[in-house]
């Protein structure tokens, strides 16, 4: 078997199990999220989301971007991981202690009564999360996504079951904290019981510096991205309080779920696989055009459909307690319709050894988003979300310019590949808004109205796609079906 065929088969299996991990795990947690929303208040979700902001920041700092650096390095010895592991765990431990000590000050700064014990409880998990991350990245490097998928199912089922019990008996915010604890401990045990790598005493400072150099660019990107994407969280928390921040958390859930389901699985595998063919520019260019075409045809309309049906979806899933969540969800979902294609650029640039280009685009996005949120006056959460979405789009022309130049693809060619699905999705969105009052006159509930409007969207999109991009759609469908058939034949042969 040739190396190219071997890599292709490994990538195919990796994509399948990474999708199982993301789709299965995220679908289960989303069902759990919906169930818990019936028992918990916006304040409960707001408190845990606030503590999560703190944990997210310090965990990002403690990892130094080593995860991406380890995955992309072509020739990596097991001993090369030792020093990054020890350094990250040590920093994670120190940061966790510091956060615990200063948790009362953080509670006063956020102006959320009762937040300190929640922050302490969640941040204690930081060293465990860091240890799990290093083991998981070695699983990913080996394209061992099947055990990661099984791990996700088990940790979600156990943690979710415990959280529901705690919520039913009235423990409120602590049901979410316990869920995090159970999932973290199960993940740690699962990954380290059959490790793909074990820490040793051999330290390689030279490799450490090399990994740190690559990781620092990835870390810098994540820091500026955190500033750009999470400033809105702090603004909502500061201006409207923890309860409305909880409402924003629930409203943005649909956007986050779709981004994770449709993109995260492919990103996990793509950086691993692309790093192995990064020296073949023409091959990467062909793969890139294929990837963005598939994302535009399949992923973009899903986001636009969800945005069009946001009022019906939020009412059915979350109930009357969460009125206003659709106003948050809709602009974010429309943003995701473009981001699901744009995010293909980052792994290709990183695999080509150009994370600095991703950092530049991310910095532009961060600065633009921060300035817009701070300078544009808003009177509601929905208005802040719209301003945030506009800021996120400022990096779009830069990322496509960088990838076009790096892979030798014309910008006009990229535009033509994306135009049919984007135009068709936009027209269908407007069609649903126009038809909603007519459907409401039928007197059906939100569930039936959503089905009718969704059917209108789907039929119209398919007709428009046939008229505007028949060949591209046929090729994308044939590619997907070919991979499915190839996988079945491979499974039967084994």
UniProtKB/TrEMBL annotation:
A GO cellular component annotation here is:
plasma membrane
Q: Which residues cross the membrane?
A: 23-41, 47-71, 83-104, 110-128, 148-168, 174-192, 231-251, 296-320, 358-378, 384-403, 415-435, 447-467
Alphabetically sorted, this entry's keywords are: Cell membrane, Membrane, Transmembrane, Transmembrane helix
Respond yes or no to whether keyword Membrane is given for this record.
yes
Report the Pfam families cross-referenced here: Polysacc_synt_3 (PF13440)
Compartment annotation: Cell membrane
Its membrane topology: Multi-pass membrane protein
Q: Which family does it belong to?
A: Belongs to the polysaccharide synthase family.
Protein name listed in UniProt: Lipopolysaccharide biosynthesis protein
Lineage of the species this protein comes from: Bacteria, Pseudomonadati, Pseudomonadota, Alphaproteobacteria, Hyphomicrobiales
């Amino acid at each position: 078997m040739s190396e190219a065929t071997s890599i292709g088969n490994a990538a195919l299996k990796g994509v399948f199990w990474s999708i199982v991990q993301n789709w299965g795990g995220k679908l289960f947690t989303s069902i759990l999220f919906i169930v818990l929303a019936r028992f918990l208040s916006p304040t409960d979700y707001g408190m845990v989301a606030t503590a999560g902001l703190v944990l997210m920041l310090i965990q990002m700092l403690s990892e130094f971007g080593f995860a991406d650096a380890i995955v992309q390095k072509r020739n990596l010895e097991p001993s090369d991981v030792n020093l990054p592991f020890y350094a990250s765990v040590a920093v994670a431990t120190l940061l966790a202690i510091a956060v615990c000590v200063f948790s009362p000050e953080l509670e006063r700064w956020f102006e959320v009564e009762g937040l300190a014990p929640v922050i302490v409880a969640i941040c204690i998990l930081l060293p465990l999360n860091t240890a799990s991350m290093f083991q998981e990245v070695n699983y990913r490097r080996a394209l061992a996504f099947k055990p990661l998928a099984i791990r996700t199912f088990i940790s979600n089922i156990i943690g979710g079951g415990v959280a529901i019990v705690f919520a039913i008996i009235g423990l409120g915010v602590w049901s979410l904290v316990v869920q995090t604890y159970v999932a973290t401990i199960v993940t740690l045990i699962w990954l380290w019981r059959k490790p793909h790598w074990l820490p040793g005493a051999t330290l390689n400072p030279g490799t450490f510096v090399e990994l740190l150099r690559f990781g620092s660019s990835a870390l810098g990107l994540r820091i500026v991205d955190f500033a750009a994407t999470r400033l809105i969280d702090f603004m909502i928390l500061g201006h409207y309080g923890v309860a409305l921040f909880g409402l924003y958390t629930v409203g943005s859930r649909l956007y986050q779920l779709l981004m994770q389901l449709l993109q995260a699985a492919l990103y996990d595998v793509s950086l691993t696989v692309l790093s192995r063919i990064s020296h073949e520019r023409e091959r990467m260019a062909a793969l890139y055009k294929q990837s963005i075409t598939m994302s535009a045809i399949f992923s973009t309309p899903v986001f636009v459909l969800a945005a069009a049906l946001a009022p019906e979806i939020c009412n059915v899933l979350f109930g009357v307690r969460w009125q206003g969540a659709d106003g948050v969800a809709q602009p974010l979902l429309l943003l995701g319709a473009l981001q699901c294609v744009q995010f293909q650029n980052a792994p290709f640039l990183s695999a080509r050894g150009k994370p600095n280009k991703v950092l530049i685009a991310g910095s532009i996005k961060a600065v633009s988003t921060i300035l817009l949120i701070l300078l544009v006056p808003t009177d509601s959460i929905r208005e802040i979300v719209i301003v945030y979405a506009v800021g996120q789009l400022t990096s779009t022309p830069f990322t496509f310019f960088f990838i076009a130049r790096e892979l030798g693809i014309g910008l006009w060619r990229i535009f033509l590949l994306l135009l049919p699905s984007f135009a068709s999705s936009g027209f269908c969105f407007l069609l649903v808004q126009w038809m909603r009052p007519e459907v409401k006159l039928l007197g059906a509930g939100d569930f039936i109205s959503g089905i009718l409007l969704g059917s209108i969207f789907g039929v119209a999109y398919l007709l428009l796609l046939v008229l505007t991009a028949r060949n591209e759609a046929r090729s994308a469908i044939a590619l997907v079906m070919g991979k499915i058939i190839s996988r079945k034949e491979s499974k039967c042969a084994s």
